[in-house]
Structures are given as C-alpha cells and as structure tokens.
Amino acid sequence: MHNVRAAVLDDLDVLSVLLDDYRQFYQQQSDLSGARYFLSQRFGLGDSFILVSEDASGKISGFVQLYPGLSTVGLNARWMLNDLYVLPDYRSQGTGRALMKAAADLARDHGVARLVLMTQVENERAQRLYESLGWQRNTAFYSYLLDVNQK
Questions:
Q1: Exposed / middle / buried, residue 15 (Cβ in 10 Å: 0-12, 13-18, 19+)
Q2: Cα 105 from Cα 51, distance rounded (Å)
Q3: What pLDDT score does 1 carry?
Q4: Calpha distance 54→4 (Å, rounded)
Q5: Helix and strand totals (H; E) in the chain
Q6: Which residues pair with 50 in a beta bridge?
Q7: Mean pLDDT per 10-residue run, the chain (151 residues)?
Q8: Cα–Cα distances in angstroms (integers) from residue 88 to residues 63, 75, 150, in the given order
Q9: How far is CA 52 from the centre of its chain?
Q10: How far apart are the first and last CA of the chain?
Q11: In angstroms, rounded to a whole number, what is the distance separating the alpha carbons of residues 45 and 105?
Q12: Whole-angstrom Cα distance, residue 130 to residue 96?
C-alpha cells in the first residue's frame, strides 16, 4: 500500500534527509543543511511540485520532484521530472512506480503535455522502471551541460 500525496512544509525535516541521501547516491558530499535550505526555497517559492510516498504507518518512504517548464516548439507546458528517490528498504515494493504514476497524474491534471527526465547511463534499475511505465528513451536529441561557473 502506497499513499502518495503532495509534500507539505511539515515534511521538511524528513525530506531533507531523503534529499541528502539522494544527492549522495549521485556522489555528492553530504550537506543536510544545504538540502534543507534548498527544499525550504522550493516550498517558499512554489517553483516545484514535490510528492511523497508513505507506508502504512505514515513513514515517508520516497519522493519525486517536478519542475514546470515550457516547450516553444510544442507551444505547451513540459515538466522536468528531476528527482526520484526511494529509501533502500522500500525499493522493489512499488514505491517508485507509485510516485512515477502520481507524477504523471499530477501533470495530466495540470494540462501538461509531456514529462521529461534524465538519468545516468548506469542507472539501469531506474531505466527499467521508466520503460515499464511507458517512458521512451530519447534517441533524437543529445543532452548537453554547461557549467557556467568554470572557464
């Protein structure tokens, strides 16, 4: 049983720990205060949608975060599903699937035409989940990054 709901400010402490864990998964140094500050900005600015999954006892077991954006070519809204994280003890129990489905439902409810995401090439477990939910790997475009703080 997975209850997925919108995150609220009262979730900030638990979400901060999950975000810090998520960042460490991507080889970033632990920074719990930075994670908390980042999330408090999201809540304050309202510039992302965060959904959480709870187990039967109400413990938060994972989260997904979406950032609204636009498509000039499509002349419509396109959201970036930027973050999906599930606590290790809840993996392979449908938590990630429930969060992904809830994210798609939320986008649909907001009239969003398309969700997009990026994942590491090595993250095959996540890729299997995405593809099982109908996500299609983009082979038509390359993804580029520019660190504007480095010369």
A1: buried
A2: 11
A3: 64
A4: 6
A5: 4, 6
A6: 65
A7: 92 98 96 98 97 96 96 92 95 94 97 93 92 92 87 71
A8: 13, 39, 35
A9: 10
A10: 49
A11: 23
A12: 10
> Residue 146 corresponds to which tokens in the numbers above?
């520019």
Q: Do residues 77 and 110 lie in contact, with contact meaning Cβ atoms separated by under 8 Å?
A: yes
Tokens matching residue 57: 């006892």
Residue (of 62, 83, 74) closest to 111 by Cα position:
74
Q: Which residue has the tokens 């994942």?
A: 119
- The three-class DSSP label of residue 45 is helix
Structure tokens that stand for 109 in this block: 């409810």
Identify residue 28 by its one-letter amino acid code.
Q
3 state DSSP class of 7: coil
Residues with Cβ within 8 Å of 56's Cβ and at least 6 positions away in sequence, in order, are 1
Q: Which two tokens stand for residue 8?
A: 């609220």
> Residue for token digits 């983009």?
138
Q: How far apart are CA 77 and CA 135, in angstroms?
A: 17
Read off the amino acid at residue 35: A
Token pair, residue 143, equals 């993804």
